[in-house]
Each structure stands twice: as structure tokens, then as C-alpha cells.
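Recall the central idea of this unit: under ordinary conditions, the amino acid sequence of a chain determines the structure it adopts. In this exercise we apply that idea directly, starting from the sequence alone.
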Amino acid sequence: MNWRLFIISVCLFFLFTACDSVEKKVTDTTVYKREHISLVLPELPNELTFFAEKINLEDEDLKERLDREILSFTYQPANTIILLKRANRYFPKIESVLKKNKVPHDFKYLCAIESNLQQAISPAGACGMWQLMIPTARQYGLIVNAEVDERFHLEKSTQCACDFILWARRFSDNWLAACASYNRGLEGVHKDMEEQYVSHYFDAELNNETARYVFRIMAFKLIYENPKDYGFVIPSSQLYKPFQTTKFHVTESILDLKKWAISKGINYKILKKLNPWLTGNQLTLNPKNYCIDLPSKNTKLKNYNAYF
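Accordingly, the structure predicted from this sequence is:
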């Protein structure tokens, strides 16, 4: 019996010793990692200019909500970096349409938040960089059919977004509420504010997505305009350049876009990259209404074998 007790005691001793050793190693590793992590953030401004309006950020609630979105962008760096790279490619075209419509240039940041500047399709069926639903797109003149979906046409979809935001601004006290309505709908935002007896977006208790929406737009504006302050140093050579293209005016029906692309010295992949609004493999419905973008002669967007 004594021998049995002795053996059990020895086993328990080694068991607790091993556990203690593992715990120390985990603790030591944790401490080691913490000692080598240094998170440095710039002070958030007390105000910022947004849609040509001064936004006072001294209020603790507003500042903390903006801080949350800054942290989200800053410590998910891969997504933010690729967004900054894409912005260099797409913002010039977007800004051109905004200028034509006299819409403040800050509206382009809403597009970045909506889609990460990619031709996205949401679970609800919103499409393109501006995430437009079919009824809204058609209401503002975009064509959506079996061959074409102009929600994926950057300039035309930007024009549609401008039409909507200008309409929403007419019925809103400021651009903040107009932007919130892009997410929630004009009626939804106004209803929430009226039920709470408030007249400003910042004073309303909204659903989580809409409550964060405008702050996400403001946060990306701050980072885009001051990337180094937030730890993003991207060499200009690594920014995505705008595609250099030429316009091909369609004069007759195209029955096979894949074959047609080959006849133009490119391929279907390149055709779709430059013209994501071509959703089918033919263009027969009013083809003369369209121009197709083709890569310019010196653009590095070619068939792979052309580089050899």
C-alpha cells in the first residue's frame, strides 16, 4: 500500500511541475509579445471639414465613434492599403462626375465605404461600386437587362448616385443626413429623427450600421488625406494607376463578345475588366447606344503571350 501511495505522489508531483512549466512558458511568451508591440496613434482632430462644413468633434460620443472607425481601418491594414491603392485608380473618374454635378468631392468617400471600390454584389442584390438596387438604378435612367447592367459602369453609376444624393440633400438639413439616407433610406432616417424629436444626425439613436456609416466615411477621408499620420506609407509606384483606354463606338450588334474581343487583339478577361457592365456574351439590344473601352496601345493590359 505504501508503495502505491509513493508512486501516486511522484506522479502528481511531476504532473503539477509540468503544468507549472507550461504556464510559465505561456506567460513568458505573452509578456515577450506585449513588450514588442507598440501602438501609436495620432490625436484625433477637434474638428474636421466634411462636405465643406465644419464638424465639431469635441463631444466625447462623437470622438469615440470616429475613433472606433479609425482603429478599424488602421488595424485591418491589408484592406485599407488595397482601398488606398484602388482610390488612386478610380477617384479621378468619380471626381470628374461629381464636379460636373456640383456635388462635393467628399461624396467619393461614400463610394469607398459602400464597396471597397470594387464591382461588388451584395446579398440583397445591390451592385457596383455605388451598390445600387435595380429599382433605384432604373429610376435614374440606368439600363439593366440580360446583356447590360449599367450599375457596373463607373461613370454612369456615379451619375446615378449624384442624382440620388442631390435629391436627398433637398429634403435633408445637411449632407450628413443625406449620406445617412444613402444607407438607411430618406424616409427611414427622417422617421427615426422625428420620433426622437431631434433634427441632427449626430443626435439620433440609429441602427448600428447607419449609426456607424457617416463616421466610417469621415474616418476614411482622414486616412486618405493624411495616410502617413495613420501609418500608411505607400510608394506612388505601388498605387494602382488608372487604366489607359480608347473608346470603341459600337455600330452594329455583337453576337459573340468573346470572339469579338479576340478580333480586337485582347481577350474576354480584359474586355470584362474594362467593361464590367457587359454582363452577357452579346450586345444586340440597341448596340449603337454604347461605347466599349479597349486598352490603349501602350497599356500593360494585354494577352499574356504579347509580352514575349
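The beta strands are 47-50, 53-56, 245-249, 291-295.
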